[in-house]
């Protein structure tokens, strides 16, 4: 590297470094990035297209920034470049092609700050016409031809197609604008070869027009196959055939060839020279025998085909049974027979029939006729017919022995109610289909055919008169036999709906005294069994439930009490309907003997009250007398001593009063009412007669007492404790 170059690199490094320093010191903002496609968004192939990236960036110093621009197509990077100027970034698409079609965007990056433009679509229309080249225009049949197809000026991912007279013969995928292939042409003729291509983009594929046509002349090979079959006249089944396959016009200088002999799709033999094949003629159903001889040289095939008809010696036997239906253990006849045979070659007596399996079969004396006893389960039979070494088998005959009807049952699903329909069911064991017939009192009602397993025959009937009816079922599953099965007779009793319900009460009076017996009798019209239920109004729980074959029932309450007063009703049901009686109001009154007892009790109570009142009054009076006598200090009038009448008459009206102090010691009897401690002072006022004699004490007068200056209630003294013995004797 010379000095000038080193100097230039040094200066450039200094410039970039200084620019970087400047960039790191100034602030900027990418305002917008816009992508502009010039001259326009839709162009034809071969146009020069310019992608212009215009960015608006604001800076703090106005100096240039290092900018990195990236062009993207369909979100994939196409081109990236770093510049130091603020000018628009331009990306050129010279000679734009269809492959250039897509969505383009411009991305700007300044010091890690990025902004992406809106996507702009570029549409390039028109593909160049492909050009086809062949290495030769004349070939022999089977020789290879080399072809080259070119898409001038195009780029991208290609698929090339090669055609022979509009029939595709080759397909090649390439990333370049040309493709090569080789192929062989068969058949002596003139072939027109052309090509075309498609360009694949991320969104779609774009086809080109057809290329130029190139004519190729093909010379036919002189070699031909030859097929011979002996005999060539009428061929019968079992005849021996001799078949040969060879090639004609084969020269020693010719390339190697190969022969193939086939019958239909079955390859019989192959070889490099004449092929011979021997076989026995076996006809195909409604088809002739087809033989094919082919010779292959350099991938060129030539063939010769022949069809021959083979007359059937005898037809495939058929196996039939009689009767067409058979029951377990029944003897049946199996017949094996070939309908057609070639009378020119064989007689009917030449046919031998065999039944499989043939163990212990009784002889019938006729060819192809076998007597067989039906087994208990399903079984299969086949037969074969044989003549002149030809053996043919019949199709398999599956025999399913039927089972006679048995265990026939009849039942009724619903309750039988007068004038209402009900269901009768018939069912039995046996092979299907089964025909059922229903009889009522030996008169046919209807028939049903059951074709599914575990299904019952369903009959509907109505009985309009009360009474008993007899039903039975008959079943049959044989078309050729009168053997039938019959069920037992089913007796049906008709339920008559309940009506005219009455409720009676005994005693008839609805007012009854306690202790009596009460009976409710409920009766209806209809048939039983009938269920009677008795209720008190307001209760959902029956007082009594009774099921009986009679049309009446009763409820007994004994003995009745006041709690039995209420309204009663009854309900009756028999499976057909339910009826309810009217409410009956029962009132229970008190028994007469209870009323008399209450009166006597009241009188006795009143008498006791009177006696208690009288006793109380007497007791109170007695207590007052005893209290009066129990007083401690009294005022008393002395009774004048006996005087003469003169003295009595001279007595003054003013009493002569004197006071006497009497001191009593306190009693220590614990039974007495406690008194104050110490001694008691009693002051007695004694009235003296004028003569000086003391009057006798008057215990009925008002008395006053003072004990230690405290006053006591009279009721505090017990007359027994404070006896009269404690009173002092009067003082003269």
Automatic annotation (TrEMBL):
State any single GO MF term: transmembrane signaling receptor activity
Q: Which first-to-last residue range defines the signal peptide?
A: 1-24
Can you quote a single GO CC term?
A: external side of plasma membrane
Residue intervals passing through the bilayer: 597-620
Protein name per the record: Platelet endothelial cell adhesion molecule-like
Write down the species: Haplochromis burtoni
GO terms in the biological process aspect are: cell surface receptor signaling pathway; cell-cell adhesion via plasma-membrane adhesion molecules; immune response
Every copy of the Ig-like domain together lies at 497-587
Family annotation (InterPro entries): Ig-like_dom (IPR007110), Ig-like_dom_sf (IPR036179), Ig-like_fold (IPR013783), Ig_Fc_receptor (IPR050488), Ig_sub (IPR003599), Ig_sub2 (IPR003598)
Q: Which UniProt keywords apply?
A: Disulfide bond, Membrane, Signal, Transmembrane, Transmembrane helix
Q: Which domain of life is it from?
A: Eukaryota
């Amino acid at each position: 590297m010379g000095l000038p170059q080193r100097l230039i690199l040094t200066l450039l490094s200094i410039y970039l470094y200084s620019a970087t320093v400047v960039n790191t010191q100034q602030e900027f903002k990418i305002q917008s990035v816009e992508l502009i496609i010039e001259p326009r968004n839709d162009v034809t192939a071969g146009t020069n297209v310019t992608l212009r990236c215009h960015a608006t960036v604001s800076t703090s110093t106005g100096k240039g920034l290092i900018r990195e621009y990236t062009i993207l197509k369909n979100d994939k990077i196409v081109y990236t470049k770093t510049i130091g100027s603020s000018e628009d970034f331009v990306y050129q698409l010279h000679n734009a092609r269809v492959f250039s079609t897509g969505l383009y965007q411009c991305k700007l990056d300044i010091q890690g700050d990025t902004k992406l433009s809106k996507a702009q679509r570029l549409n390039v229309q028109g593909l160049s016409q492909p050009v086809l080249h062949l290495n030769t225009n004349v070939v022999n049949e089977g020789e290879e031809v080399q072809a080259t197809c070119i898409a001038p000026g195009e780029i991208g991912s290609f698929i090339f197609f090669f055609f022979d007279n509009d029939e595709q013969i080759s397909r090649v995928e390439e990333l370049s604008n040309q493709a090569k292939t080789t192929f062989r042409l068969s058949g002596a003729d003139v072939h027109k070869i052309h090509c075309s291509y498609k360009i694949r983009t991320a969104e779609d594929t774009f086809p080109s027009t057809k290329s130029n046509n190139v004519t190729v002349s093909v010379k036919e090979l002189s070699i031909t196959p030859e097929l011979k079959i002996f005999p060539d006249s009428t061929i019968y089944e079992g005849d021996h055939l001799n078949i040969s396959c060879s090639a004609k016009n084969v020269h020693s200088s010719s390339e190697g060839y190969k022969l193939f002999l086939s019958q239909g799709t079955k390859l019989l033999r192959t070889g490099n020279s004449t092929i011979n094949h021997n076989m026995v003629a076996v006809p195909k159903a409604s088809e002739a025998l087809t033989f094919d001889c082919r010779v292959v040289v350099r991938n060129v095939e030539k063939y010769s085909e022949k069809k021959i008809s083979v007359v059937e010696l005898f037809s495939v036997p058929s196996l039939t049974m009689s009767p067409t239906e058979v029951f377990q253990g029944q003897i049946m006849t199996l017949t094996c027979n070939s309908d057609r045979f070639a009378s020119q070659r064989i007689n009917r007596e030449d046919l031998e029939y065999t039944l499989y399996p043939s163990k212990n079969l009784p002889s019938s004396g006729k060819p192809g006729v076998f007597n067989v006893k039906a087994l208990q389960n399903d079984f299969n039979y086949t037969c074969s017919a044989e003549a002149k070494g030809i053996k043919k088998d019949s199709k398999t005959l599956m025999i399913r022995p039927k089972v006679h009807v048995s265990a026939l049952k009849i039942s009724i699903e619903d309750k039988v109610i007068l004038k209402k329909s009900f269901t009768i069911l018939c069912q039995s064991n046996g092979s299907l289909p089964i025909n059922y017939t229903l009889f009522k009192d030996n008169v046919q009602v209807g028939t049903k055919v059951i074709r599914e397993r575990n299904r019952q025959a369903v009959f509907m009937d109505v009985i309009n008169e009360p009474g008993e009816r007899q039903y039975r079922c008959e079943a049959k599953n044989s078309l050729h036999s009168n053997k039938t099965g019959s069920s037992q007779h089913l007796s049906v009793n008709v339920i008559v709906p309940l009506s005219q319900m009455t409720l009676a009460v005994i005693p008839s009076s609805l007012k009854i005294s306690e202790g009596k017996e009460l009976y409710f009798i409920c009766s209806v019209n209809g048939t039983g069994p009938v269920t009677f239920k008795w209720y008190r109004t307001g209760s959902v729980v029956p007082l009594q439930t009774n099921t009986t074959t009679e049309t009446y029932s009763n409820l007994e309450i004994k003995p009745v009490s006041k709690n039995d007063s209420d309204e009663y009703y009854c309900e009756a049901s028999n499976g057909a309907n339910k009826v309810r009686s009217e409410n009956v109001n029962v009132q229970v009154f008190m028994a007469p003997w209870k009323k008399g007892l209450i009166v006597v009790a009241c009188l006795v109570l009143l008498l006791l009250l009177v006696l208690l009142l009288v006793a109380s009054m007497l007791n109170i009076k007695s207590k007052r007398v005893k209290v009066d006598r129990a007083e401690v200090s009294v005022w008393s009038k002395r009774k004048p001593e006996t005087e003469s009448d003169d003295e009595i008459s001279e007595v003054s009206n003013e009493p002569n009063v004197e006071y006497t102090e009497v001191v009593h010691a306190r009693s220590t009897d614990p039974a007495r009412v406690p008194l104050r401690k110490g001694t008691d002072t009693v002051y007695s006022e004694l009235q003296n007669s004028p003569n000086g004699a003391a009057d006798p004490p008057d215990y009925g007068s008002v008395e006053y007492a003072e004990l230690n200056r405290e006053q006591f209630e009279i009721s505090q003294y017990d007359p027994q404790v404070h006896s009269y013995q404690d009173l002092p004797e009067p003082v003269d």
